[in-house]
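Re: that chain you flagged

S.,

Sorry for the slow reply, it's been a week of failed gels. I finally had a moment to sit down with the sequence you sent. For the record, here it is as I used it:
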Amino acid sequence: VLVEKPIALTVADAERSVKAAADNGRVFMVGHVLRFHPAFETLKALIDNGELGEVRYIHSHRLGLGKFHTENDALWDLAPHDLSMILAITGTEPIEVRGEGAALLDNLSDFAHLHMRFPNGLRSHLFASRLNPYRERRLTVVGTKAMAVFDDVEPWERKLAVYRHAVWQDSGQWAFTTNEPSYVAVGEGMPLTRELEHFIQCIETRAEPRTSGEEAIRVLRILTAGTVAHTGSSS
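Prediction finished late last night. Pasting the structure tokens below so you have them in one place:
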């Protein structure tokens, strides 16, 4: 079973779907397609190998003009992609979620902010908007050794940049130096094609999908918490 994001509009419905698939021996996978983007896969490998040091802060921007849906707002429409990537990096769910959004055209939020705090102190901020004059698809990861930016609007040779800036304390004052980014080579490949290939492989081998139903439930929990935070209601 391959389901587009978000897999449901409530956590309870998502849990029922995942359980039904498990009870019937079906592989259940959600379409968090950016987890299969070569640039994100390379970024994740850099983090796992310690190239950025300890990750302290993650922020993502997913902005553009349209599409205007009648069944969900900007948070539920756009944020699942980024939340999936953030959860893949952190390996855990946030312990605090704060949200803010506003409906400017109709009764559904056209933009939304999420602020998240994780058990190890890591902070993350997500900004999603479908009422923005330009297109932005950017994930920034700040570590103790280096910073990295995955910018999907850039051409392939510039999609993943690593910044090795330095910040230190000198005589009670903070000082810093900046360096030009180094662009990391990533293999070109359509994320959707790679996602479908992974799904087929999971069916053939019965392996747990990278973007499993359990991950989708974790994403929905954050979306629900963010919605409650800025509207006072989970609906």
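What I noticed first: The domain at 2-231 is CATH 3.30.360.10 (Dihydrodipicolinate Reductase; domain 2).

Talk soon,
D.
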